[in-house]
Specification:
Layout lengths: L3 E6 L8 H9 L10 E12 L5 E13 L8 H5 L5 E3 L6 E3 L9 H5 L6 E2 L6 E2 L5 H5 L5 H5 L5 E5 H8 L18 E4 L13 E2 L7
Parallel strand pairs: 1-9
Antiparallel strand pairs: 1-8, 2-3, 2-10, 4-5, 6-7
C-alpha cells in the first residue's frame, strides 16, 4: 500500500492561515468546522528591568498547521461503531463514509489530534480527506498548493522522508504519537517536546 503523508516545516510558517482559509472556502465548511487549523503556541514572559523597561524572559512562539494525519493505525477507524471511518487500502487516506455515519462523535473522542468534528446541519462527522479527489486526479491537497511560504508539502511518506528526513511529530502542542501519524514535522528552533512544554495555545476560541 502507498501511504500518503503531509510534511510541515514549522520554521517557515508565519501563521498566515492561508492553508486553513483555502480549505474552508473550497469545501464551504460551516462556521464551527475546520479540516485544518493553524495553532499558535507561545510561552515565556516579560519582566520589568531595573531601568523600568520590560524585557523578554524566555519568550518563544511558533505555529503548527494541523489537519487529519491519516495515521497508519487511526484511532477513529478502530473505534467507529458503524464503519463510517475508512482507511483507503491503496493510498492510506482516512476518509468518512457519510452514508453510514450516525454522528455519534466517537471518532472525535478517540482522535488524539481532534481531526473529526460534528457538522450540526449535516448530522454527520466532518474531517480532512487529504483532498482525495484532487489527489486521485494527480493533484495535491488545497492547503499545500495554497501555502505562500511552502511550509506544507505532500507526497508518499517514503518520498517525504527521503526529502526532509524523519522529522519529529512529537512537538508541542501535539500529543505523543500513539497512532503512527503520517505527518512529518520539521520543528521550529524553539519547539518543545510533547508533554514537557512550558507554553500554551493562544488562539482565540473562534479561530479553532
Amino acid at each position: 500500500m502507498t501511504q500518503y503523508a503531509f510534511h510541515f516545516d514549522s520554521s517557515k510558517c508565519t501563521g498566515c492561515k492561508t492553508c486553513q482559509v483555502a480549505c474552508k472556502e473550497t469545501y464551504k465548511l460551516p462556521v464551527n468546522n475546520l479540516y485544518r487549523r493553524v495553532l499558535n503556541y507561545q510561552g515565556g514572559a516579560w519582566k520589568a528591568t531595573e531601568a523600568g523597561h520590560y524585557a523578554p524572559d524566555g519568550v518563544f512562539g511558533y505555529f503548527v498547521s494541523l489537519a487529519c494525519n491519516h495515521c497508519t493505525n487511526p484511532a477513529c477507524v478502530a473505534n467507529c461503531p458503524t464503519g463510517a471511518m475508512q482507511k483507503d487500502e491503496e493510498t492510506g487516506i482516512v476518509w468518512t463514509d457519510h452514508d453510514v455515519c450516525i454522528g455519534c462523535k466517537t471518532c472525535e473522542t478517540a482522535c488524539p489530534y481532534g481531526a473529526p468534528t460534528f457538522g450540526e446541519d449535516e448530522g454527520y462527522m466532518l474531517k480532512c480527506d487529504m483532498c482525495k479527489s484532487e489527489v486521485e486526479g494527480g493533484g495535491k491537497p488545497i492547503c499545500v498548493t495554497g501555502c505562500p511560504m511552502r511550509a506544507l508539502d505532500f507526497g508518499t511518506r517514503e518520498e517525504l522522508v527521503d526529502k526532509y528526513g524523519e522529522g519529529d511529530v512529537e512537538v508541542e502542542p501535539l500529543p505523543q504519537d500513539t497512532t503512527e501519524a503520517n505527518l512529518i514535522v520539521t520543528p521550529h528552533r524553539d519547539a518543545q517536546k510533547s508533554g514537557s512544554g512550558t507554553g500554551s495555545v493562544v488562539n482565540l476560541e473562534e479561530e479553532l
